[in-house]
Amino acid sequence: MSDLRAAALASKAWPYEEARKLLKRYPDGKPGGAPVLFETGYGPSGLPHIGTFNEVLRTTMVRRAYEELTGAPTKLIAFSDDMDGLRKAPDNVPNKEMLEANIGRPLTRVPDPFGKFESFAHHNNAMLRDFLDQFGFDYEFMSSTIMYESGQFDEALKGVLRAFPAIMDIMLPTLRKERQATYSPILPVSPKTGIVLQVPIEVVDADAGIIRFVDEGETIEQSVLGGLSKLQWKVDWAMRWVALGVDYEMAGKDLIDSVTQSSKIARALGGKPPEGFNYEMFLDEKGEKISKTKGNGLSLEQWLTYGSEESLSFYIYREPKKAKQLHMGVIARAVDEYYQFRGNYPAQPIEQKLGNPVHHIHGGKVPEGTPPVTFGLLLNLVGVMGAETSEEQVWAYLSNYVDGATPENQPELAKLIPLALAYNRDFVAPTLQRRKPEGIERAALDRLDRELAALPAGATATDIQNIVYAIGNEGGFENLRDWFKALYETLLGSSAGPRMGSFIALYGVENSQKLIAEALA
Predict the structure, then answer these.
(1) Is the distance from CB of 37 to CB of 21 less than 8 angstroms?
(2) Dihedral angle at the C-alpha atoms of 23, 27, 29, 30, nearest 10 degrees?
(3) DSSP 3-state assignment of 296?
(4) What is the mean pLDDT of residues 178-203?
(5) Could you give the CA distance from residue 305 to residue 302 in angstroms, rounded to a whole number?
(6) Dist. CA 73–CA 35, nearest whole Å
(7) Which residues sit opposite 214 in a β-bridge?
(8) How many Å apart are CA 81 and CA 45, to the nearest integer?
(9) 23: DSSP letter
(10) What b/e string do you get for 253-290 counting C-beta neighbours within 10 Å, with b at 16 or more?
(11) d(CA 325, CA 306)
(12) pLDDT of 115
């Protein structure tokens, strides 16, 4: 047994814990050498959001962990429930009246409100695939509409008709009394209106796939096959697991009861429900659940405007069973923490490497090197430089800190600078407000100015930081925190900031003296 596999078998990192569930499911590998099948589901009734991406990324991490443990083949399906009827028009898309006129129709038969694609579902499916492709995910996209209409689900649908009584016995006790009277696992598509009907049905011939139902007062016998019906989603989920042979699928904590019922239905259909776990939901800044129809929280595009791809993956990896807020304020810290873990990775023993988030973010192929300047420090730099600062100006200042720094020899830094400029322009610069120094702060700043002027050429960030500490300790402040806070508020215009030694070395001694002069004036 290799050292890597032995360490992975013992690792407490959550992707390995999840992968070991699949080892128990198939101690000798999946029969016939078939790939172990992972699935993620997507409801294309709204625009894709970070919660959607979160599920694909985390599932991919478990998939990679299983491959490391076994070397066995795997496959990931990104399944779109685009045969669902449109329940309501999302608030964050155009042409809402047109969407409301198509309530109840399958999403692939609802016109695209953006006017770009064949249907609303085709538009949202394309957005999902573009984003997943951008991140380089290895997946097979699968459309519910195509599976139903092509007949690939026909045999499974006949199985649902045969198991109809058992499925009703599972579902009815979970429903309110009034819902029990109208519930049906099978939703026929109306031949009159094209709407996915929520009506009771009667099984006429399970082997032929024929049902009977009432549509606008008329009793109709119709096949369930070839896209003429779809299943209620809990039944649909279970049918899909069985029909496709899904081995692993995770879901949000809000779907725990749904997983339970769908697992019972899968067994009633003669299959085995997949392995998986329930993760906590992302919350917005107010602590409310993020919803793709509300459009609250962060969009995928917003994060990537202000933070790196790796920082998003890092934030998603951490503590999947803990609810986390997802807003602009978490981005900068995620960027710096990602690089901190990445910098630690090369020197770690194998056990620690397997528990390091970057191992799972990069599938064990962690890039070398970290930027010489933190993202937080970059934000402070561009904050004092102003909202109209250019990338060229930032690189000019960086030469004070990193000899010969260029985009070519500092590619990680080159990725961060435009992100820092955008973040500063949109969120930091409008809030910065420098205050006047008061009392002992003036004398301390005056001393800092004199000591900076006396620095020898080649003084380091540590040399400067020692001066800052000495002034704070000897300047009459109750504690150093008050001194640092005064520096941030009078020089940078914010209530928090970087190590001042590092900032002054980066911004330049003369430029920092100008800041002090402005504050004292």
Answers:
(1) no
(2) -90
(3) coil
(4) 95
(5) 5
(6) 5
(7) 219
(8) 9
(9) H
(10) eebeebbebbbbbbbbbebebbbbbebebbbbeeeebb
(11) 17
(12) 93
Q: How far apart are CA 194 and CA 211, in angstroms?
A: 17
How far, in Å, CA of 82 to CA of 41, rounded? 10
Of residues 507 and 18, which shows the higher confidence score? 18
Q: Which amino acid is at 153?
A: F
Length of the chain: 521
Residue 298 has pLDDT above 80, yes or no: no
End-to-end CA gap in the chain: 70
Which tokens is 371 given? 């930027």
Helices (H) and strands (E) in the chain, counts: 24, 12
Strands 74-80 and 140-143: parallel
Q: At 229, is the secondary structure helix, strand, or coil?
A: strand
Instruction: Count the helix, strand and coil residues of the chain and give each as a percent rounded to the nearest 5.
Output: 50, 10, 35
- Looking at residue 358, its amino acid is V
Distance between CA 288 and CA 283 in Å, rounded?
5
Q: Say how far apart CA 183 and CA 201 lie, in whole Å.
A: 9
Assign 250 to helix, strand or coil: coil
Q: Is the pTM of this model over 0.85?
A: yes
Identity of the amino acid at 115: G
Residue 168 vs residues 161, 176, 177, 235, 479: alpha-carbon distances, Å: 11, 14, 14, 10, 69
Secondary structure (H, E, C), 397-430: HHCCCCCCCCCCCCHHHHHHHHHHHHHHHHHHHH
| For residue 285, pLDDT beyond 90 | no
Residue 191, Cβ density class (10 Å: 0-12 exposed, 13-18 middle, ≥19 buried): exposed
